[in-house]
Every structure is written in structure tokens, then in C-alpha cells.
TrEMBL record:
Alphabetized Pfam families for the sequence: PNPOx_N (PF01243)
Name by which UniProt lists this protein: Pyridoxamine 5'-phosphate oxidase family protein
Keyword Signal in record: no
Domain of life: Bacteria
Lineage: Bacteria, Bacillati, Actinomycetota, Actinomycetes, Pseudonocardiales
Alphabetical list of InterPro entries matching this protein: Pyridox_Oxase_N (IPR011576), Split_barrel_FMN-bd (IPR012349)
Domain Pyridoxamine 5'-phosphate oxidase N-terminal: 43-138
Keywords of this entry: Coiled coil
Residue ranges that the Swiss-Prot or TrEMBL entry lists as coiled coil: 176-203
Annotated organism of origin: Pseudonocardia alaniniphila
UniProt xrefs under PANTHER family: FAD-BINDING, PUTATIVE (AFU_ORTHOLOGUE AFUA_6G07600)-RELATED
Amino acid sequence: MALRFAELLFTRAVRAAQARYGGRADRLLTAADPRDRLGPDEVEFLQTRDGFHLATVGETGWPYVQFRGGPPGFLQVLDERTIAWADFRGNRQYVSTGNLDPAGEARVAIIAMDHARQLRIKLLGTAQIIDADADPELAARVTVPGYRAVVERIVVVTLAAFDWNCPQHITPRYTAEELQDVMAPLVAELEQLRAENARLRSADPRVRAG
């Protein structure tokens, strides 16, 4: 576990729950990873995601979780402590948008998944919204060529902590593209078998006669 992530989330109430239910707070903190900045593994993982779940908190105190999706590359790592993504035009409810602060003080939590490899990363940070017209350079960075959705805003998150989560209980799932990669050898073998079957059939005079 990442040290900073544990420091932020292991509150007194959490520690009490760990003590009650047999948690491992002390051992986790002792063995915690001191890194608090995104490295090459995190950058590669985040920038190849086609979606993630974003948690915000409204002014009434209710949390709200929303899936944010797009083609790989719509989420970008700007530097080792900052990520940003294109906020595409959607159903125009603007719940997550309304919960965020243009000044960058709104706290958010993010979970990004790779179901095929049973990987996930959790991030904590503060978010701000920037209109796409206000920063064309940044808008261009989070725009994926060929994707027709309209980028209305850019969400920029300054990270407070992150942590790779264990793969336990992650059910493997595959996108259509991932399935194509998995199935490619089987499809190739099937085509070879079909070609071989056609060759054998054409070489057998009994088949030709029939």
C-alpha cells in the first residue's frame, strides 16, 4: 500500500474498524510504499484506459459516483502529480460538474480498472474545471483524433495520493478489442483448417464426383 494513501484514509474511525475486524493497519503502514508521484507504470496504465469511475461530493454532503468514458488517450498525465481528461458532452445533468470547484478545491476519488489483467489503481486529489475554449493547448492534448464527441470542459486533478489495489475479487472482463487479440490465434487456426479441408476435398476424386 502507498504510505500517503494510507495516511489520508486511515482515520481514527477506520483504525477502530480495523482493530475490531482484524485489520492490518500497523503492518500496512510499516511496509508501505513511500512513493507519492506517478511513475512510468502509472502513466502507461492511466493513459490507456477507456474509462474510470469518479466520486465527488455535493454541497448537501451526498457522494456521487459517475463513470467517465472515452477512447484510450482521453485521460492524460500532465506531470507526476497532475492528470486531466476531456469532459465530453453527455446527458447534460452536470452533477459531477456541479460538484467540482473551478478554484480546484473539490476533493475527488478515482478508480481506474483493467479487468482483463485484473488491475486497478485508486487516486485521491483535488479537481478544477477549465473551459475548453480557455486553454486550447490543453484541450488539444486531451482530444483524441477521430473521436467525434465534443470536448466541453477539461477536468484537471492535482493528486494527493494513489495506490495500486490488490487483484482479489476482480472478475476478468474483456473489451471487443481485447477479445480480438485473444481470439486472433484461434481465428487464424480455424482459417488454416478450413483451407486444409478445402484442399483435401478438392484432391479427393470421390468428393469431386459427388
